[in-house]
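haha ok so turns out i had the wrong file open the whole time. this is the CORRECT one, sorry everyone. sequence first:
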Amino acid sequence: LSVNSTYSNMCVECGAGYYRNTSVNACAACPLGTYSSQGSAACIACSEGTFTNATASSYCHSVTAGSYASDMYGFSMTSGATNSTLCQPGYYQDSLQSSRCYECVEGKYSSDAGAMLCNDCDAGSTSNSGASNCTLCAAGKFSSYNGSSTCTDCIQGKYSPAVGAVECTTCPSGLLSSVGASECRACAAGKYVYTDGNGYQSCMNCSALDTAYFGYYSVGGTTSCNISYSKESCNDESMYSQCGDNQVCISDGSTTGGTECHCMAGYYKRSNETERSAPCYPVPAGSYGGVNGSF
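then structure:
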């Protein structure tokens, strides 16, 4: 044999990153997403969480935390990956060599691509799963701690007037609110705020006393009804001049036949203005003073 024929029949070992292409009986570069060691007859696909984005690779790169193994378009691949893609906002990956990212859970968020962890939403805000930012609690709701998964309605008798509340405020005395209220309201004139043993609030009508000489009234926005009265004495039921404006002189109901000044029906005196000269005021809308002596 000649020297040339001897060399032409010798076997040549393919280098790392190459494999023996039997169709042409030559060494060929391993394609993207694969690798080989020296003398390999075939290329091996990159395992899960690793990739190679070049041909003729002798090894695959590990995907870093905050990323996942993918193809060139960003689709996840469990083997043969050709690229490493950053986790999108709202997702995270805290481990190396991963083929996927995880959603941030409710109450957490990640605002930037490539997050290795999710951050807690501040108190007064919350988020849905997979969120890239947090949303402030609406008026009438609150969240009292960081990382809250939901905003909670203010209970009856409390309110939050603005977004982002970390707690609800108790309604001032004489006012009430429903569940999830952004403001408190007053009962109408002639009504008052009643709280039962379970803390439930409602507007109740002021009631009448048994005697015709007294009555209850409210101007609204109170927790009780006021008692209205006029107890000035007069000498004769027919002598209106002894009593103030809008008053009448009527029997005091005693066995001695005494008389007293009382507001006319539809009028009342304020409890701190009972002297004879004090005026009688019209009862507020929603209240009543249907007989002489009602207050």
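The helical segments are 3-8.
again sry for the mixup
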